[in-house]
Design goal:
The structure holds 2 protein chains of 2 kinds.
Chain A: H1 2-44, H2 55-64, H3 66-100, H4 102-117, H5 120-130, H6 133-157, H7 162-170, H8 175-214, H9 222-231, H10 235-264
Helix pairs in contact in A: 2-10, 3-4, 3-6, 3-8, 3-9, 4-6, 5-6, 5-8, 6-8, 8-9, 8-10, 9-10
Chain B: E1 11-21, E2 27-37, E3 41-45, H1 52-60, E4 67-72, E5 85-88, H2 100-110, H3 115-128, H4 144-156, E6 162-166, H5 174-191, E7 194-199, H6 202-208, E8 211-215, E9 222-227, H7 236-239, H8 242-259
Parallel strand pairs in B: 3-7, 3-8, 5-6, 6-7
Antiparallel strand pairs in B: 1-2, 1-4, 8-9
Helix pairs in contact in B: 2-3, 2-4, 3-4, 6-8
The chains are: A mainly alpha, B alpha/beta.
Chain lengths: 276, 265
């Protein structure tokens, strides 16, 4: 018995750490092998950069065109941020209104769903007719980001512990007190989950609108650069802009995940270690 | 004590012909009559689903009776019901997102009590249940028994006249339950609160209360009342006494008809 226990202890304490290293190491290795293979194929078959640029060429373009690309990155990020903030505030406020008024919820919720299920790429050209381009792009980012915040916040506000609600009732809590001390804190994990989805979607909304607006030619975001570079057969720059978009998406997601973790780490199951 | 309204003749709680019919047509309670004297420790004992929790919620004002009258003695000049009633739920029912101290402070915060006063009262309530050192801990860091103590401290922090307890110790292991039973009795002797304690344990009801009210199966009605008259204070030696065993036998016999017609599972 004791021999088995002795053998198990070091293995059990060592394995989570090893697993964490593997979880980082394995995807990095996949990326390294994939990139190397890509570069090898491009060189071995002497593929021209306007057909398929190798990773080295993409990185070189990224560095060489940094002036243009960084400006475009900034434009897209600002659009995404504006759309994200509007989606977050709009989604949370509307969910709060729905929570207060059944009539309002029944009247408006179907339209929130319709806005969500209609593909934004189909709405964008219309918005571009009626709104100034920059506004239209932000509105697109808002439309796609807003629903997950609304839906998640609504779910969170409705998931309040029944006994805790009874306790608040017993102590004569006002509606505002119940909202502040009970409903919002219990909804917080759900809201943060919604924000995490909305962050990525806002970027997608911004990109979609930029592409739709691209042919109108007034934009300067990353998606516009991709469209423009495509017309000019500047394929390396297309890849460089795409790389930047992916990186931006990853950073947005990681930031929101970090915020969520920091806000919940002391109490919520999702942020606690598995062995707790 | 002098400022307590004497309108209902020394009773802290009185229920007369109370029924509760749920929306789905289930008759949960009644008609049910009950009077509890001020300072008395009464247990409501009955099979699961007999409406004893519903009776407690009716007394707390968390549910309204379909018919009949619920009267709870109140101090003059206090409009809000929370001040005179403390409620301990079946689960600890703590807010997981905030510390033990903040959980206990909640009733005072909701009543807009001045901060200087609340600090002292929170500390006092936590000291009463022996958790002074855990004010800054989070609920998830505590054991089941400790969480229940926090719940009890929160119920005591407003210095209520009546303590309503809904099977508070049912989910705890036996040793923890016995300890909390003793602590609750000590608190009751010291603070002289009226306690209405819902349980489905014959042994717990006899050990704790001055009077055991046995309820029928749903819809819950009063089936029998048994006064537990022993020398005070009760302690662990009472748990093993012949007297205790006698009372348990008596209460079990009174409870048996409530289970008649149900298959023994």
């Amino acid at each position: 018995m004791s021999a088995t226990a002795n053998e198990r202890t070091p293995a059990a304490s060592g394995s989570p750490h090893a697993r964490r290293v593997l979880r980082i190491l394995l995807p990095v290795m996949v990326a390294a092998i994939g990139t190397a293979a890509w570069e090898f194929v491009v060189r071995a078959f002497d593929i021209q950069p306007y057909v398929l640029p190798g990773p080295v060429a993409v990185i070189r373009t990224l560095a060489g065109d940094w002036g243009v690309l960084s400006h475009s990155l900034l434009v897209t990020l600002v659009t995404t941020l504006e759309g994200f903030v509007a989606a977050s505030l709009g989604g949370i406020l509307l969910a709060l209104l729905f929570n207060v008024s059944r009539v309002l919820e029944y009247s408006l919720f179907p339209y929130a769903v319709i806005l969500q299920v209609t593909p934004v790429i189909a709405i964008a050209p219309l918005l571009l007719i009626y709104l100034p381009q920059q506004t239209a792009v932000v509105v697109c980012a808002w439309i796609v980001g807003f629903f997950p915040v609304l839906a998640n916040t609504t779910l969170g506000l409705n998931s309040v512990d029944r006994n805790l609600a009874g306790l608040f009732q017993l102590y004569g809590a006002t509606k505002l007190q119940t909202l502040r001390f009970l409903k919002l804190p219990s909804a917080l994990p759900y809201i943060l989950g919604g924000l995490r989805i909305a962050g990525g979607l806002s970027l997608i909304g911004a990109v979609v609108a930029e592409i739709a607006a691209g042919t109108a030619g007034a934009g300067s975001g990353l998606a516009y650069r991709i469209v423009e570079s495509g017309y000019r057969l500047n394929i390396p720059r297309m890849f460089a802009a795409l790389l930047l978009l992916s990186l931006a998406g990853i950073v947005i997601y990681a930031l929101l995940a970090l915020i969520s973790h920091l806000a919940l780490r002391r109490w919520h199951e999702s942020a606690l270690g598995k062995d707790n | 004590m002098s400022d307590i309204d004497i309108a209902i003749a020394g009773n802290a709680v009185s229920l007369a012909g109370v029924t509760k019919l749920y929306d789905n047509g289930v008759m949960a309670v009644g008609p049910f009559d009950l009077s509890v004297r001020r300072g008395e420790f009464v247990s409501l004992l009955g099979p699961s689903g007999c409406g004893k929790s519903t009776a407690l919620r009716l007394i707390a004002g968390l549910a309204l009776p379909s018919s009949g009258r619920v009267e709870v003695a109140h101090r003059r000049g206090e409009a809000r019901p929370g001040h005179r009633i403390g409620f301990v739920f079946q689960e600890p029912t703590l807010m997981p997102w905030t510390s033990v101290g903040e959980n206990v402070r909640l009733p005072l915060k909701l009543a807009h009590a001045p901060a200087a006063e609340t600090d002292a009262r929170v500390a006092e309530a936590l000291a009463r249940v022996g958790l002074s050192e855990f004010a800054d801990s989070y609920p998830r860091e505590l054991s089941g028994g400790m969480k229940m103590r926090v719940s009890l401290a929160r119920a005591l922090v407003t210095d209520p006249d009546i303590l309503l307890m809904d099977e508070p110790f049912a989910a705890l292991d036996e040793i923890t339950r016995f300890r909390l039973n003793n602590d609750l009795l000590a608190l009751w002797r010291k603070l002289k609160k009226t306690v209405i304690f819902v349980t489905h344990s014959v042994f717990e009801s006899v050990y704790l209360s001055q009077r055991v009210v046995v309820m029928t199966a749903r819809p819950g009605r009063l089936s029998a009342e048994i006064a537990i008259e022993t020398s005070e204070p009760r302690g662990e030696e009472f748990r093993t006494s012949a007297e205790y065993a006698d009372y348990c036998r008596k209460v079990s016999a009174a409870l048996a008809p409530s289970y008649a017609g149900q298959s023994a599972l």
